């Protein structure tokens, strides 16, 4: 047997504790499979006394995570602290400079500093592995980095945030509004006390930026992602989607286009009988379209102690086997500059919900604004939702408000935006139109 691989683990929250449990539960199997023992040499966390349900007395305690990162006793620094800067960033950088391999679950750090850290890892001949940073227990980084080498990837997309998927699924199943479901999710511990990162789409964007770089061999471009959250999704949209044969999912999508790479995070309509529509609750999924492998869909747990620890353990296993790959698939110096495809040029069909003043000529005016932009309407319904919108009664009253839902044929984002802006300017609607992209699967 080779000599043990010694870990320094910084951060003993849900994932760190889960990792200690996994390494303990599978110690013999890991040693037999890898031909060497995986040994925890030292740990570091904010509080030493906190009861985490795991025994820490066998491990050396180091107060300072940055000091642990370059500790001479360790081979691998496992960063499970989180956050795009601060101690996590300082410690990872210190570890790489000290020629320690790094395993991290920190998507925010990599989305911001991934390429620089990858360069540092390559210069020092060590690994920077981050399977746990994207979609928890779903082995998507390994899938792209290893299993799909013989493919040109055309598109990668998925449901990358369990909190949003839980909220949207619950709204759909129980017919309840966003704010109420969010409050309940927070009370049950499914959503953070400050849920902005999740529901605003930023957590999905962090993960998408890493997938994009791996899939297309480009520099990580988090700031170039178009991000919309789920806050504005109303029960009326969920109901209309259902009636029209769709489900609403928060998707992260990256695809090659003739003018560059399109990266976007937003609620999207997907056909309700598609596999992705069936991914419900906190479950995540990642779809990858390869030119030879075809269309793949990986589904699994995107968060939580066990699935995330499983991903961290696999990264540690690679290092134990001596597998050190460039973090973003190609050496960082060969990553292509990111060329952003403008969303205005996005082509697709759209769902639009308008709250229209119920007066003669309103529909004609809407149709004419669409026609001016050459937006062709596939279907239009004046519908009263089962959950009536505020200000909308159960029965139509002349001059009152009426909801109108329409689906367009494929058009451009620029055209639909211009048409909707004109409709709003005309004073035909009482509120800003709701627009949701229909994702072509
Ligand atoms: N907060 C994330 C989610 C998990 O709800 O899926 C960690 O990225």
Put the structure in a nutshell.
The chain is α/β, with parallel strands linked by helices. Helix content is 35%, strand content 24%.
Q: Look at the structure and name the CATH superfamily of the largest domain.
A: Dihydrodipicolinate Reductase, domain 2
Low-pLDDT residue spans: none
- The end-to-end span amounts to 49 Å
Average per-residue pLDDT, rounded, comes to: 94
The outline comes out as elongated
Q: What's the CATH topology name of the largest domain? A: Dihydrodipicolinate Reductase, domain 2
- What's the total helix number? 14
CATH class of the largest domain: Alpha Beta
List keywords for this structure.
alpha/beta; Rossmann fold; Dihydrodipicolinate Reductase, domain 2; Alpha-Beta Plaits; 3 domains; eleven-stranded mixed β-sheet; six-stranded parallel β-sheet; 17 strands; binds L-homoserine
Verbal overview:
The chain is an alpha/beta fold. The chain has three domains: 129 residues, Rossmann fold (3-Layer(aba) Sandwich), CATH 3.40.50.720; 162 residues, Dihydrodipicolinate Reductase, domain 2 (2-Layer Sandwich), CATH 3.30.360; 94 residues, Alpha-Beta Plaits, CATH 3.30.70.260. It is 35% helix and 24% strand. Strands 7, 8, 9, 10, 11, 12, 13, 14, 15, 16 and 17 form an eleven-stranded mixed β-sheet that branches. It has a six-stranded parallel β-sheet with strand order 3-2-1-4-5-6, with helices on both faces. Helix 5 links the parallel strand 5 and strand 6. The longest helix has 17 residues. Bound molecules: L-homoserine.
């Amino acid at each position: 047997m080779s000599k043990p691989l010694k870990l320094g683990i910084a951060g003993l929250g849900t994932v760190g504790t889960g990792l200690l449990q996994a390494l303990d539960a599978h110690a013999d199997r890991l040693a037999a499979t890898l031909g060497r023992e995986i040994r925890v040499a030292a740990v570091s966390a904010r509080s030493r006394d906190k009861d985490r349900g795991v025994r820490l007395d066998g491990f050396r305690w180091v107060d300072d995570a940055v000091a642990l990162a370059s500790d001479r006793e360790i081979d691998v620094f496992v960063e499970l602290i989180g956050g795009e800067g601060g101690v996590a960033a300082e410690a990872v950088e210190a570890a790489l400079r000290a020629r320690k391999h790094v395993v991290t679950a920190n998507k925010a750090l990599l989305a911001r500093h991934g390429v620089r850290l990858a360069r540092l890892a390559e210069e020092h001949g060590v690994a920077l592995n981050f399977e746990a940073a994207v979609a928890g227990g779903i082995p998507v980084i390994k899938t792209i980095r290893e299993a799909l080498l013989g493919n040109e990837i055309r598109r990668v997309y998925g449901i990358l945030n369990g909190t949003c998927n839980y909220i949207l699924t619950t709204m759909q199943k129980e017919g309840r509004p966003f704010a109420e479901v969010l409050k309940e999710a927070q009370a049950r511990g499914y959503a953070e006390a400050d849920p902005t990162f999740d529901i605003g789409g930023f957590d999905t964007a962090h993960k998408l930026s890493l997938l994009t770089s791996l899939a297309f061999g480009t520099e990580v471009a988090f700031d170039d992602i178009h991000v919309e959250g789920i806050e504005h999704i109303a029960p009326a949209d969920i109901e209309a989607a259902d009636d029209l044969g769709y489900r609403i999912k928060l998707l992260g999508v990256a695809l090659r286009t003739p003018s560059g790479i399109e990266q976007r995070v937003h609620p999207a309509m997907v056909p309700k009988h598609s596999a992705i529509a069936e991914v419900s609750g906190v479950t995540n999924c990642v779809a990858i379209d390869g030119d030879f492998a075809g269309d793949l869909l990986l589904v699994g747990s995107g968060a939580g102690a066990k699935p995330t620890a499983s991903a961290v353990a696999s990264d540690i296993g690679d290092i134990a086997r001596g597998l050190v790959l460039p973090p973003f698939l190609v050496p960082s110096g060969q990553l292509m500059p990111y060329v952003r495809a403008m969303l205005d040029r996005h082509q697709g069909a759209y769902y639009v919900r308008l709250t229209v003043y119920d007066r003669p000529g309103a529909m004609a005016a809407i149709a004419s604004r669409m026609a001016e932009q050459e937006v062709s309407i596939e279907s239009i319904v004046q519908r009263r939702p089962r959950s009536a919108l505020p200000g909308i009664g159960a029965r139509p009253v002349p001059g009152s408000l009426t909801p109108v839902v329409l689906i367009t044929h494929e058009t451009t984002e620029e055209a639909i935006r211009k048409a909707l802006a004109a409709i709003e300017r005309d004073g035909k609607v009482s509120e800003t139109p709701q627009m949701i992209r229909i994702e072509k699967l």
